[in-house]
């Protein structure tokens, strides 16, 4: 605990002294003119062509980055290789803005008059950006399909087919609404991540028979387009006939390998600058300049120091009268020796009250941590400066956002040592959030578990305190369960492993941590997955430490509807069994793929927990389970048994629920015997009578095993 105490005391001294330092501001724009390799053209027309792109083979990194400059236009136009994909801008951040032909299908009197069917086939290092673009169809009798292949990265690279589409109908142009693309005159849908080619098919629901329609266009259109540059107008139903191309955003990587592998091949490794670093991308890897440097990371001298002191931006880094000194990769601000009448240096921050508030915050945190300094599980909490985190996130650039909600925003950041982190920034600051901030630091400083997102440190200089965590690369469990494409990759084995790992964390919090910890907000959004689908439990802002002499806490009810323990909701008495109920809901999400609460479903299906219990009691278990895990008949016995665990966790009365220690043991035991469930019904019954853990009702010397298929009693050596 001593390192925390010393560090925080030092920080108090630092903040008191540093009232004179300037506020952090946006990183300046680059003053580095290095774009292309020596003796290579840097532009085609109005478009810059930075290396690894180039207009001749010797000016590119390799053939996929070859740009053809067509001089037959009034202003020369660049194209990607020998394709018809016209480039409008190239960004070293890994994006390529292009123009692409649209698909068109026009009829008059039932006869085709104009049909175009362009398609996109990209080199292996290029993909269609799935967040910036959407697939859109425009027309009053239009059925459009987009299909192709996307790249799936895992233990091995797979190229899988995809197909999706939408329908647009209307009786006349007047029925359509501007800026609305919901199926009347215009429809849209998303495309999968990693799509490397796009093939569009247009068809008609009524075979283009417009005899009963008035003032109706005779053309259908479909295209993948950059959403930021396309707002639907009902005039497009007739005017798109005169439009040939629309904007599209592509992603590019510099190599197909991940960084760890790419670095082994020193000759082919593309991050050439001394001040660059490598980071993995969805379809390979890319390079960026380190913090404090800007330019082209693919050139040997491409990343050059940013001189923050001469930056012309109005949000200058050092406040008025402060002295700025540029350093390699950074800068310093020092105060003018003159002092004003109130005793503060002239370069005092504009808001000294914020510093006073944060000193108070540090003192409170210090006192709370000091109380717990006897804990052997305490981790060191690093203190980051605002400048460090601002640089890490490129001034909290929106492109670095990896999560967003009512609480605020989570950013992906790159520290100076190239460590990738997640930075949690709350939207507003009030007393409740200060308490949650202190609480999360306090709780996570007591936890050391491989399935808990590790807290690396915090920042107390900013008006809203920031938390810094290890970066988990694969998003939330919720994203994977409720996205059809991602859910198809979640096998039953993966889902049960995630459940077992989450149960293991809660068992550790309740039974092994001292003092015990109640998470209080277990839900699929708060469970992250790494690239190997290992679960990482996060967000301990609402958690509570349980005093040694108590088993329950009287609190204001806090949690998320759909996951909230009904007994806790009614009594305000928080117990470990409240986490058990929330875990039960997450477990049912894993088994069904359904959301915990959905008001778009029929009334009896809105609450997933209630609908699951009702379905099991009626013998309709397999009607509610996710299709991705019930296709194998050999899973039937296993699914019945794990459903019993979920059902018991969802008991209305907390006393009737198992402990998380029991649940974790049951899931672990079930995992060890997973291959045994493929036996015959008779063999399944024999196995169930031997399992130390599906549907227990514990007593001193025995276990009562209640499952859908059997009820037996067996000895349990050693009691509980």
What does this 3D model show about the protein?
With 720 residues, this protein is of the alpha+beta class. It folds into 4 domains: 2-21 and 350-470, 2-Layer Sandwich (Phosphorylase Kinase, domain 1), CATH 3.30.200; 43-93 and 255-305, no CATH class; 95-252, no CATH class; 480-715, Transferase(Phosphotransferase) domain 1 (Transferase(Phosphotransferase), domain 1). Helices cover 24% and strands 26% of the residues. It has 17 helices and 37 strands. The protein has a 6-stranded mixed β-sheet with strand order 24-28-29-27-26-25, with helices on both faces. The protein has a 5-stranded antiparallel β-sheet with strand order 8-7-16-11-14. β25 (401-405) and β26 form a beta hairpin. α11 runs antiparallel to α15 and α15 (636-649) runs antiparallel to α16. The chain is globular. The two termini are 34 Å apart. The relative contact order is 0.07.
| Morphology | globular
What kind of sheet is the major sheet?
6 strands, mixed
What's the overall average pLDDT, rounded?
78
Number of domains in the coordinates? Answer: 4
Number of helices: 17
């Amino acid at each position: 605990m001593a390192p925390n105490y010393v560090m925080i005391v030092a920080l108090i001294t630092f903040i008191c002294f540093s009232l004179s330092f300037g506020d952090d501001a946006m990183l300046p724009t680059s003053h580095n003119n290095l774009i292309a390799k020596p003796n290579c053209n840097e532009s085609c027309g109005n478009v810059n062509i930075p290396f690894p792109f180039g207009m001749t083979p010797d000016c590119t990194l390799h053939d996929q980055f070859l740009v053809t400059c067509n001089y037959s236009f009034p202003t020369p136009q660049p194209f990607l290789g020998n394709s018809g994909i016209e480039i409008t801008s190239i960004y070293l951040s890994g994006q390529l803005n292009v123009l692409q032909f649209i698909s068109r299908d026009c009829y008059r009197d039932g006869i085709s008059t104009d049909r175009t069917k362009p398609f996109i086939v990209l080199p292996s290092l290029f993909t269609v950006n799935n967040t910036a673009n959407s697939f859109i169809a425009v027309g009053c009798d239009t059925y459009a399909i987009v299909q192709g292949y996307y790249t799936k990265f895992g233990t091995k690279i797979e190229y899988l087919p995809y197909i999706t589409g939408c329908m647009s109908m209307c009786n006349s142009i007047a029925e359509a609404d501007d800026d609305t693309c919901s199926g009347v005159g215009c429809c849209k849908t998303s495309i999968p991540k990693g799509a490397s080619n796009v093939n569009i098919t247009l068809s008609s629901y009524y075979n283009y028979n417009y005899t009963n329609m008035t003032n109706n266009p005779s053309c259908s259109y479909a295209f993948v387009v950059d959403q930021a540059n396309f707002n639907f107008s009902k005039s497009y139903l007739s005017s798109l006939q005169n439009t040939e191309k629309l904007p599209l955003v592509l992603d590019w990587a510099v190599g197909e390998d991940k960084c760890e592998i790419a670095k082994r091949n020193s000759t082919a490794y593309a991050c050439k600058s001394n001040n660059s670093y490598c980071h993995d991308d969805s379809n390979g890897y890319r390079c960026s300049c380190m913090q404090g440097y800007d330019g082209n990371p693919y050139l040997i001298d491409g990343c050059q120091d940013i001189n923050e002191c001469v930056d012309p931006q109005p949000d200058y880094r050092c406040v008025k009268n402060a002295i700025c000194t540029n350093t390699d990769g950074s800068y310093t601000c020092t105060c003018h020796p003159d002092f004003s009448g109130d005793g503060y240096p002239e370069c005092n921050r504009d808001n000294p009250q914020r510093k006073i508030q944060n000193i108070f915050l540090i003192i409170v945190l210090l006192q709370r941590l000091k109380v717990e300094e006897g804990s052997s599980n305490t981790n060191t909490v690093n203190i980051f400066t605002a400048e460090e985190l601002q640089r890490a996130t490129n001034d909290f650039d929106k492109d670095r956002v990896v999560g967003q909600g009512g609480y605020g925003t989570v950013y992906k950041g790159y520290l100076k040592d190239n460590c990738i982190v997640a930075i949690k920034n709350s939207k507003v600051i009030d007393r409740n959030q200060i308490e949650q901030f202190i609480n999360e630091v306090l709780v996570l400083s007591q936890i050391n578990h491989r399935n808990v997102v590790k807290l690396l440190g915090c920042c107390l200089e900013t008006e809203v305190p920031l938390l810094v965590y290890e970066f988990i690369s694969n998003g939330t469990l919720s994203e994977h369960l409720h996205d059809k494409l991602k859910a198809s990759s979640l096998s039953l084995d993966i889902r049960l492993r995630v459940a077992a790992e989450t149960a293991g964390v809660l068992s550790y919090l309740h039974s092994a941590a001292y003092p015990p910890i109640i998470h209080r907000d277990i839900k699929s959004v708060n469970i992250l997955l790494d690239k190997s689908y290992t679960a990482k439990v996060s967000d301990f802002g609402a958690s509570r430490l349980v005093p040694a002499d108590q088993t329950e806490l009287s609190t204001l009810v806090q949690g998320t509807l759909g996951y909230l323990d009904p007994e806790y909701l009614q009594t305000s008495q928080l117990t470990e069994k409240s986490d058990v109920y929330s875990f039960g809901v997450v477990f049912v999400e894993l088994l069904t793929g359904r959301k915990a609460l959905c008001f778009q479903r029929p009334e009896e299906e809105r609450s997933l927990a209630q609908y699951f219990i009702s379905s099991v009691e009626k013998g309709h278990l397999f009607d509610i389970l996710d299709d991705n895990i019930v296709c194998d008949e050999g899973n039937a016995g296993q699914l019945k048994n794990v459903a019993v665990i979920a059902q018991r966790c969802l008991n209305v009365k907390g006393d009737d629920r198992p402990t998380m220690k029991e649940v974790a043991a049951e899931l672990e035991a079930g995992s060890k015997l997973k291959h045994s469930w493929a036996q015959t019904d008779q063999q399944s019954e024999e196995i169930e009578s031997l399992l130390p853990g599906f549907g227990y009702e514990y007593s001193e010397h025995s276990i009562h095993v209640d499952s859908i298929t059997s009820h037996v009693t067996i000895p349990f050596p050693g009691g509980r």
